[in-house]
Amino acid sequence: MEQNDKIVIVGVTGYIGVWIAKLLTDMGYNQITGTYRNEEKAQQLQSMLPNLNLYKANLEEQGNWKEVLSEAKWVFNQGSAFNPNDKTYKDKGRTKQKGIRMLLQLAVESGSVEKIVHTSAESTIAYANEDPSKTTFTEDDWTDENREGLFDLHMVSKTMEEKAAWSFINYHENTTNISMTTIHPTHVMGPSFAPWHHDMIYAMLHGDRAMADSQLYGIDVRDAAAMNIELMQSPESDGKRHFASAFKTTYSTVLEIIKKQFTDEQIKAVLGDVVRIIPGDVAADLLSPLQSTSYYQDMVPRMFNRVVYKTNYPEAYAYEYTEPNTTVLQAMEKMLKDKTK
């Protein structure tokens, strides 16, 4: 990557996308193009990073994608196709498949794109395994999107999307030999660069409800963005899938960090009602009648802190990650600041 190369960030207004744009700007790259859906967010981002060239585009239609990709060398894909009329997660998956295939085909037709870093998810790797005794996962593993009883059906569409991307890259359709790397973030937390984001802390902990305590792997959003850039710059990452994971903690630990640092009023301002966390062993006992289900086999080992994510490629990134305490506290501080504006 040279500083005058054209770089495209698909979904630049997203949680990770804005940090990729910010880091690239700080590194001196001066030909950064971003695509967006929401006009208001784009205008705010333009005022924050005036160097960006922004295009309204979505992956459901060709629109102006040829112009977006013209003379581009490097593409960070933070987006997915979306159709509000999709009724099932298989439908959503088929929409995502069409979107990623369209993006890759247009990248081939551009004649200039050399590499794409596609953001997939932890959820395409480590769930719905037929062997209930399996607790260690690497990038060689795939979630079975056809397994019934998945606890989060977003896994279905994301797995279908990623498989379609690899199918395109690895076969005759990729006539210009574009390289691809996929990155698989775990729970993404940390301060948003733009004021419209809530990170996984909000998603995990808000609401008047009960939830089982469980382990979780996490990564600071800034580290996820930096890893995207590192993977783009590394030829050794070509053709590979990469976990993006910095630390291992639990839901109760995250909530404890928050309660030690912030007042009840501050927590209420950010999270509203806060979940009631049930100890993992208690929840596992309550779920014992469901032992034959994918939900039980995926979640109970996590309740007992038994699941291990082990990357095949530790050399691909320095793993100089932000510590979870810093990530959680800075995320809360940023959300509180944005709430009071």
UniProtKB/TrEMBL annotation:
<dbReference type="InterPro" id="IPR036291">
    <property type="entry name" value="NAD(P)-bd_dom_sf"/>
</dbReference>
<dbReference type="Pfam" id="PF01370">
    <property type="entry name" value="Epimerase"/>
</dbReference>
<dbReference type="GO" id="GO:0016616">
    <property type="term" value="F:oxidoreductase activity, acting on the CH-OH group of donors, NAD or NADP as acceptor"/>
</dbReference>
<keyword id="KW-0560">Oxidoreductase</keyword>
<protein>
    <recommendedName>
        <fullName>NAD-dependent epimerase/dehydratase domain-containing protein</fullName>
    </recommendedName>
</protein>
<feature type="domain" description="NAD-dependent epimerase/dehydratase">
    <location>
        <begin position="7"/>
        <end position="238"/>
    </location>
</feature>
<dbReference type="InterPro" id="IPR001509">
    <property type="entry name" value="Epimerase_deHydtase"/>
</dbReference>
<dbReference type="InterPro" id="IPR050425">
    <property type="entry name" value="NAD(P)_dehydrat-like"/>
</dbReference>
<comment type="similarity">
    <text>Belongs to the NAD(P)-dependent epimerase/dehydratase family. Dihydroflavonol-4-reductase subfamily.</text>
</comment>
